[in-house]
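Narrative progress, year one. The postdoctoral researcher (J.K.) led the effort to move from monomer predictions toward full complexes, under supervision of the PI. The following entry was the first complex the group processed end to end, covering 380 residues in total.
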Amino acid sequence: MTRFSIRVMIATLVIITALLLAMPLWAHHGAAAFDVTKMVTVKGTVTDFQYVKPHVQVYFDAKNDKGETEAWQGELTAPNKLSRAGWTKRTLKPGDMITVTGNPAANGAHTLWIRKLIGPDGESLQLFED
Amino acid sequence: MARGSLLWMAPAAALLFAGALDAQTAPPATPSKPAPKHDLTGVWMARNPPAIRAFAGATFTKEEPEMTPWALAKYKEAKSSNGGKYTLETTNDPVVTKCDPPGVPRVYFHPYPFEFVSTPKYMLMLYEYDHMVRRIYTDGRPIPEDPDLTWMGSSVGHWEGDTTFVVDSVGFNDKTWLDRLGHAHSTQLHVTERFRRIDMDHMQLDFIMQDPKALVKPWTATFYYELRPNWELGEISCSGDYLDFKKFEK
């Protein structure tokens, strides 16, 4: 194993540990709908973007392993908070290509609590105020 | 998605967000310029150190307050929305199920900022969550002796020294909870908030809750806040925004 790949491995472990440490708070305050022990990444095309309270909704289509199109829904935080992170109701629009990483719905539905979102410009968008 | 499962997520998300900022938090964090005299103007957001954050999403202190039998019985009836798996059918949290105003001091358990606006006669407190408003009279009037009962109470305030604004509030109805866990109070609740501006960007808020019917002795707690000079409060209307999720139930 090269020195570089060891570094990458250590960095990955550090990130995973940090995420695990952050979880008890989340779990304590309710993780009914989402499996916070899992993180999945889905690449797709925005079909609808609803900048609504209490949580902003992103709808997108993604291809599964068999090449079939599946409809996904992703949730973000409140628009009040996203606005303070620089978002507007126009930040995403139908047709935009996005890559979404988040906690999947515990019941297996195609729903994600979004933790990272790479927008149409290839930039990771800020998901929280401040 | 069931609307109940959505409701808990705002606070949960905020806590998670707060968790991500752990490293830079413990107050007084990086000291800023000295606090201005008799001025709290601006938007403030909770920023507690980790030891407080461990419980501050739900309640005031790690230990239970000393409750009277009356309050303990009420507390046992409370089915909070705090434990995670709940639906609108399994909680009786009045904020979640009815969009009741949170009241004081529960309003501080919503993960949204608040703003001080100073006027000659009163200090306005604007809370982003459900655009709650409090008028804290600073014209020297005494605390009312027998006020009409309201959700947010009747408040008077005065300065102690240059940087501590002391607010006394009474006249609360007994429909609200003290916190997210469902600790009860009666109409005899008297809340004292001591807003001490530590420096330009940091504020310490000491709470003293007194209620002879509910609390055997005063319940005291301290939370911390940071100034957010670039933030603007938005609109949140619980009844309009939180109780109707049909618009994105696809």
